[in-house]
Give the backbone structure.
Amino acid sequence: MMSFFDQVYQKLFSKPETANEVLVYEPISRNEHYSEGYAFWLHSVNHKSLIRKVAESYLLKQNNLVGEPDVHLLATSVSNGFAISFNEEIDKKEFQFFFDWLGEKVEALPYKRSNSDVTITDKGNVVESKEKHYFKPIQQSQEPPLDQQFGNILIEHISIDNRPSFIKFVANTYNDRMYKTPDSFEVLAKYLFEVS
């Protein structure tokens, strides 16, 4: 055990704790094992089951009811979306698969992936991992007004101390004369949650 003097000395002269220190910032990369697991999940009943559960919770939340997993609606004048809280009934790996699947669904639209990265930050008392996919609509013409479709789409998967916390899906639109009126977010949500 340190003496009182040692404790005071350490506080005065030790390297200060750095909250919000970025430990890792790099492009997302998936190894072969992950990719194989993801491909298997895509063709499993678990994949469709999770989509159905999220879709049901999304509809329930629109009526101010809570489902499992809990879905939170995000709506402002320029942003629309939802967040899905992780719960123990969802497999940790499946939750991450769902994040990547949302990205693939967006990329199947006339959208291009602008970037996909992961940032790991030491927040002082916890370590936050934020995986992010960011998409922009593909423009058929560069002449205004530009077609913003559903807007720029950001998908984030947040983990705290290596435990999934939530997935956030947000479409951010522009409200100026350079852009056409955005398409309805509900059309996008219906597309995301349809199960064949």
Observations:
- The helical segments are 4-13, 32-42, 45-62, 92-107, 185-193.
- The chain has a mean pLDDT of 91.
- The beta strands are 21-27, 71-75, 79-85, 111-122, 127-137, 152-160, 163-172.
